[in-house]
Prior knowledge:
- The chain is mainly β.
- It has 2 domains: 2-32, no CATH class; 34-124, Immunoglobulins (Immunoglobulin-like).
- Helices cover 0% and strands 66% of the residues.
- It has no helices and 11 strands.
- It has strands at residues 2-8, 11-19, 24-33, 35-41, 45-47, 54-62, 74-79, 82-87, 92-97, 103-111, 114-124.
Amino acid sequence: MTSNFIVQGDSVYKSEEIVTDTQTVSITSYYDQATHIRLSTDKETILSNGTDVATVTARLYNYEGQYQVGSNDSVTFSIDGAEQTLSLIDGQVSIEVTSDVVDDILITCHAPNVRIGEVVIRAQT
């Protein structure tokens, strides 16, 4: 069995060729978005005092997991429904997160035709 990736616009398809003793079958199926966002944080837990800060970084990768250093596209962070749009600088951008409420904070980051990234930070006393 051999596999090849086919990029068409913002989507990636995987083409596989299966060879048996009697036949060869080609199968093409959807694989993934061409690019995706990965979110990381320097702290998984912060104090819910309104001043403790976690830095969340969004980085853009292609479907092969290669960091897209040259990208300066816009991405939108969403934190508990509030949104902020920022521009990537060389494929990444960071925000700071604080909270004065004890709860899990879901941070997502999205852009058109890009697979969404998400991370959760726990705010505790």
